[in-house]
Amino acid sequence: MTERVVLAYSGGLDTSVAIPYLAEKMDAEVIAVLVDVGQGGEDMEVVRKRALACGAVESEVIDAREEFAADFCLPAIRANALYMDRYPLVSALSRPLIVKHLVQAAHKHSGTVVSHGCTGKGNDQVRFEVGIGALAPHLKVVAPARDFAWTRDKAIAYAESKNLPIDQSKKSPYSIDQNIFGRAVETGFLEDIWNAPIEDIYSYTSNPAEPRDADEVVITFEQGRPVAIDGETVTPFQAIAELNRRAGAQGVGRLDMVEDRLVGIKSREVYEAPGAIALITAHQELENVTVERDLARFKKSVDQRWGELVYDGLWFSPLKSSLEAFIDESQKHVTGEIRMTLHGGRAVVTGRRSEASLYDFSLATYDEGDLFDQSLAKGFVDLWGLPSRLASARNTRLS
């Protein structure tokens, strides 16, 4: 029986070469699946036809942009998910969605194997294969670049020998992955971590050093979900896209970091995620206003662990699901408006407003109308410090 391979197809060299290579190596029929997560670039129909020209028996494009924003980016915003306190999980969030559609395509097309273009050095191989194992453990996985020691030179030579419709003259010197939530750039001269990024590598953001007028924006949240921008109702996808445009025009969301990959190596990555950074910044501030102190403190640890699980490819894990249930409960009162100024590469909160606010002006003010009973403070301080005083007395007695 002929194997049917469902390939996660991007339209680039590696996955285009994989089509005839897998067909020959495995005597298989290849079904190319391109998932649109808002990455932009080439027309999706052009890419779909390229897969057929490379030898795919079937090729399909799945428009998952709204789904990606609502079901993957939105939970990340509510979790304030920043890996290593900086990176908003741009690539990590898209992989489980792609996995979901690859598995669905395998069922639809009677596929027995799933294939991807990841190497053995990166995180994505883990994200793809652990996800596939969770959703469809019966499917086999093949990664040509990793499993068959497929180098770039070999791929180019193979493409030329097969006359594949791939124009290598337009090849970027960088490795780039992008979607609606952001853009990741690596390799090339960036692998020397002393080299500063150059302006040419950026696409989602303008140079923050260039003079321009500031942009003020008001973001409305309901239970942790962005639902309006400057009073105009938006879907999660529209919220991210609009803030990509406006925050990106102000140079917001540029990150240059050395991150800890799951496979154990450190990697230099340059990211730009204007919409993600603006929305997470606004969401964090609304939580500061509406979430009770002990819940807020504990949620920080939950948020961090949620982000680590997603980065590590464990989107479909029981722990991630349970943490998300906690996060959902924590968002009950995260409703209100945040005003921000976007300028000079920064998204700065300048105003907060919420019917669910825990900020009480009459308790916070130092002016006339102060209702805080300061006479209670001395006893509170004495009791709060009692364990420390007892420990100190014990240490003095025994020294």
UniProtKB/TrEMBL annotation:
It catalyses: L-citrulline + L-aspartate + ATP = 2-(N(omega)-L-arginino)succinate + AMP + diphosphate + H(+). SUPFAM superfamilies: Adenine nucleotide alpha hydrolases-like, Argininosuccinate synthetase, C-terminal domain. L-citrulline binds at Y87, N123, R127, S175, E259, Y271. Keywords: Amino-acid biosynthesis, Arginine biosynthesis, ATP-binding, Cytoplasm, Ligase, Nucleotide-binding. GO terms for molecular function: argininosuccinate synthase activity. It is an enzyme of class 6 (ligase). It is found in: Cytoplasm. Its main location: cytoplasm. L-aspartate binds at T119, N123, D124. Its EC number is 6.3.4.5. ATP binds at A8, Y9, S10, G11, G12, L13, D14, T15, S16, G117. Pathway: Amino-acid biosynthesis; L-arginine biosynthesis; L-arginine from L-ornithine and carbamoyl phosphate: step 2/3. Belongs to the argininosuccinate synthase family. Type 1 subfamily. Homotetramer. This is Argininosuccinate synthase.
